[in-house]
Every structure is written in structure tokens, then in C-alpha cells.
Amino acid sequence: MLRSWRWAGVALAVGVFAAGTSFAAGGWSALVIAKIVVFAALAFLLSPLAFPRSVGAAAAVERSAADGRPVIYWRPGCPYCQRLRLRLGRHGRRAHWVNIWTDPAAAAAVRAVAGGNETVPTVVLDGEPHVNPDPAWLRGRLLTLP
């Protein structure tokens, strides 16, 4: 699956433009450096690098049945998905991540449990769906997995 870099590119372009105009107005300053750092961090958070590689919904469900790890349905640019991913930290790699924008079956699965809406993040753990769960709860569950 092709991973979307669109929003990361937009954030980086805006950052380069903002830092460039500040640089042109007064050379290197703390403001220019701060703009570069902030927009580079935003570009990283919006990039596919912040999330583990997505798998298809069918493969994720199959893997989850085999290893007991949760399936997390997400989409790029979702602030709640970003919050969940950041709070899970490195433990987020213990889950199977499914991008609903690249997998129609995943979007249908989310709509089925979220009242017809594509509300993400939706986590399926032990066959039980949880729409926009508390990150601390999910992190605790991930820590108990082998």
C-alpha cells in the first residue's frame, strides 16, 4: 500500500515558507530556528513514519487472532489517532495498524461498530471494538501482551 506523504509535505512546505520569510526579514534568529523545528516536528507527526506500516484489514484480523494483539483502525491527519500513537510510544508497534483510507474493508468495519461513522481510532481487542479508547487503558493492555 502506498503511504500518504501529502500532509507531511504540506506542513514542511508551510514551515519552509514561514522560516524563509522570517530569514529574509532578519537573517538567522531564534524565531527562524523555532519555526523550522516546529514545522519539521509537525511534518513528522503527519507522515507515515509516526505510525507503524499499515496492513490490510483481513491480514490484521488474521494476525490478531493468531497473536492476540489489537487491531487499530486509523487514518492520516486524525488528531485523535496522533494522540493515541504518541501516548502509546514504542508500545504502539505491538498492535496491527490499519489505515481506513487505503482499505475499503477497514472503513466498512469501522462504520459497522461506530454507528455508520468512520470514527477513528477504533481498536478491536479480543473481538471487542472500542471507539476512541483512552490511550492509558490501551497502553496498559499492550504492556500485558507477550
From TrEMBL:
Record's keyword terms, sorted:
Membrane, Transmembrane, Transmembrane helix
Give TM segment ranges: 28-46
- The record places domain Glutaredoxin at 71-128
Task: Determine the domain of life of the protein's source.
Answer: Bacteria
Q: Which GO terms describe its molecular function?
A: electron transfer activity
Q: Which GO terms describe its biological process?
A: cell redox homeostasis
What InterPro entries has UniProt attached to this entry? Glutaredoxin, Grx-like_ET, Thioredoxin-like_sf
What is the official name of this protein in its record? Answer: Mycoredoxin
User: Nucleus: present as a keyword of the record?
Assistant: no
